[in-house]
Amino acid sequence: MATVSAKIYSHHTRNDGTFNVKICVYHKGDRKFFDTNHFLAAKQLTPEFKIKDKFILRIIDDELQDYRKTISELGIKLNLLSCEALRDYLEAKDKAIDFIAFGRKHISQMLIEKRKGSAHNFNTVINSLCDYFRRPSVPIEEINSNMLFSYEKYLKSTRKIVRPGQNGQDVETTEKGLSKGGLYNHMRDLRTIFNEARRCYNNIDFGLIVIKHYPFETYKLGSAPKTQKRCHTIEQVRKIRDSKPVPGSRAELARDLYMLSFYMCGANAVDIYNHLDLITPKSTRWDYNRSKTAEIREDNAFISVKIIPEAKKIIRKYLGKLKKRYCSHGGLDTALYHGFKALQKLTGIKATEYWARHSFANIARNKCGVTKDDIQEALNHVDEEHRTTDIYLDRDWNIIDVVQEKVRIALAGKSDSEVLVENRLINETDDRVDHYVNDEPRNDRQIPLNDKAEILRYLQEIGYQKKQHPNFAEYFKYVKAICDYELSVIEVYGDGALQIIGLPIAVKSEKLAYWKENETTFDTLIIHPTLSELKIIENVMTRSRVL
């Protein structure tokens, strides 16, 4: 039989010298306690810490009678409850549930679980409710259907909000009304918090219902609005790339991180902030876990992206600096917000860092003809339809490399026909490409030999000069000036593999100076082309540089 009683303990004294009256629940040989709203001074207690104030004693006795009545009404369900579950039920049954307090507690737990993105969104909802009600505490009964319809109108309107500023003083700002998509996401998050409260306080299995109402049965969210297309044309991406913001400005930061995201298969700003420093000077790939889904995917949302020369220059510029400049990715997001505003004034193009991700996918699909499955792989999305099949398959990062290379070729400025030719060659030679990951060659493909001697004769016929590799005697470089400031260098390896690289250099008196290896302006994959393939690739790569 479960019993309840009032207890006061001498060691549970507050700073003001008062003692809290606690309810002791005894059930199945176990004892659990919960606090009441009653605090008594020493003069209201006997030396044995029993209540002697008759007024307070009557109130406590009435409350105990209510708890005993609740226990009796449970009937046979009582045997199914542990002492802790019974204590929680009695405590919550007649206690007003503060929805704001519950929301903040839930957000704190999410932060412990490293679900920072969702925690941020939920915090926005809770703060907005405080703005709407104009108080920091809201009983859950006030979150009803009528309130939701009124709250929706509030969110759609322009409104003033007050938040703590950096100097500790409150700052008033004006918020625009939410868009359809923003309103849907906001109310969806509010529903999620409400559902979590019901899950926490209600025990459906035992029929113990504390939160009896559900306003979202009347207020319907409907289906999510179609996401607005947020992508740029390839010409707009080039304009952003070639823009000249003030050095060191937030506009320059926005341009650089937009292009870094674009080059690295749509990496998010939060991942650039959290994981860019995983890259070392010797890294050839960027291996990281995508922050947005790392905690909810079995593979921890791991991805490996090749560091192409265009991205390497930006990485070198910001490596080890972002976390020193910004204390959190939220600070970086704020800087990017203002940076993209300034960049828009300079270029006339509206953008955010996330547009780079959409633009990468859009150009890969519509300009380069990449399949949706391969784009999904490059974006590090999960294919729900083939989730079971994916258990049996190892991920091939070569798929992502090919998507990345096709988009890179398209951005380089070649005509549509040249892009199609080069993409066709990439497709035809995918099974002959010798990729190096973590400095280890892949030996899982048989590479056919080409006519190396015939290729070398052709290179010299079209103006390339043979130079021995400075570090490896068995390797040679063939060098040709493309224009007054750029070289084309073809590195030829012992097995006939080769790579075409663009390098900046000053050419004086037709004498080629030594090139700078760490400043490549373009390059191809390491390939084994036939002579006819090499003619097309070399012509496409070098002719486009002097247009």
UniProtKB/TrEMBL annotation:
Residues 98-199 form the Phage integrase SAM-like domain. Gene3D superfamilies: 1.10.150.130, Intergrase catalytic core. GO terms for molecular function: DNA binding. SUPFAM superfamilies: DNA breaking-rejoining enzymes (SSF56349). It holds the Pfam family Phage_int_SAM_5. One of its GO terms (biological process) is DNA integration. Keywords: DNA recombination, DNA-binding. InterPro entries: DNA_brk_join_enz (IPR011010), Integrase-like_cat_sf (IPR013762), Integrase_recombinase_N (IPR010998), SAM-like_dom (IPR025269). This is Recombinase.
